[in-house]
Amino acid sequence: MxxxxxxxxxxxxxxxxxxxxxxxxxxxxKGFVEDSSFDIFNRALYMNRDFRxxxxxxxxxxxxxxxxxxxxxxxxxxxxxxxxxxGTVGVGVDAHSLSSIKLDGGRGHYGNGxxxxxxxxxxxxxxxxxxxxxxxxxxxxxxxxxxxxxxxxVFSTDDSRILPEAATGTYLVSNEIEGLExxxxxxxxxxxxxxxxxxxxxxxxxxxVGASYAFTDNLSASVHASDVEDYWKKYYGNVNYTLPLAExxxxxxxxxxxxxxxxxxxxxxEFDDNxxxxxxxxxxxxxxxxxxxxxxxxxxxxxxxxxxxxxTVWLNNSVQYSDFVGEDEKSYQARYDLDMASYGVPxxxxxxxxxxxxxxxxxxxxxxxxxxxxxxxxxxxxxxxxAKDLSFRVRHAIWRANDAxxxxxxxxxxxxxxxxxxxxxxx
Length: 427
Hints:
This protein has helices spanning 2-18, 264-267, 403-409, and strands at 37-51, 57-58, 65-66, 68-81, 89-104, 126-138, 141-148, 151-152, 155-156, 166-174, 180-191, 206-214, 219-228, 232-246, 249-262, 273-285, 288-299, 330-339, 348-360, 369-381, 391-401, 413-425. The chain is mainly beta and 427 residues long.
């Protein structure tokens, strides 16, 4: 892994230094201040998880059980991104502030991952985390060191609650060749969405490398790999192809695969590997899109992630609650999307999907595990005026499993989220 990592770095730097004579992002830099931006992103989230079999939510401080978790909070993100200084090597900085405010949520209903927990078992009323990074650019290659948000299939910071995770490390992204993106990085800390700690997960190190290439406007592919110390080595591949059929009609295919080799320190010599892949086919017809997906997990363990980022599960059947990645699990999805712009209501959209999984191997049970989930989502984004880009979203999930998988994954529940987001571009 170390050899792969530094080979990618060398390739990116070489490409950057041999193409300076051509137009590049750095050669067109206007300056540190002139290209800077400052954004404020506001998100209000109400989240309720209703356990259908009674008191399944146990407060780790009080020991009391409740039949549901319910919390509401506001997240405010300030993000400043400078431009790069002019010259062969451009220098810049990024800085962010992440703040959360608890609007509602008692001690008995804590636990949805919105807030850190106080000593008496309640969600923390306010939290603030600040961070920054220094960045360098040569031609179309950027090297960044410090606190940052990462979106790699093998190391992806999660943003499914009020605030996102933030990683600390070095990350290089090179776009010297049209259509080709090379990336490599080493990360040494990762904060959770509910904590202002710099390293919530006690991450020792995560080395990542990746390459993505767009062969045509309709065909792209990528390969990525990671080495997370004391946990696993992970490999990922993706192929995405769109076949235009007629006016306002297209067929899209999306294939994703992970291969994970677990370290002895993590598995205690009890399991070695997992392979999980998914294939989705989506047919678009004007305002309508119909999707079918199949996903398969194999090996001697389920697919694991988290210490490498809560978003590191780029699979078609990873949905609102479940990821459908149990040991030996097979899962099937049917999905429908509707964009109301074609019917005179731009900004309004609907989505519903159903996923069924079975053949799950559960330790201690002869019976195979089974699960299914139904999702519904509607979203409206204001298109113009003073409140332009203000959005309202409702997400609802119903998840059920048989006794075997309830014992391994959790209790039956309904998950409801109301989300209001308002991005502001100050600079």
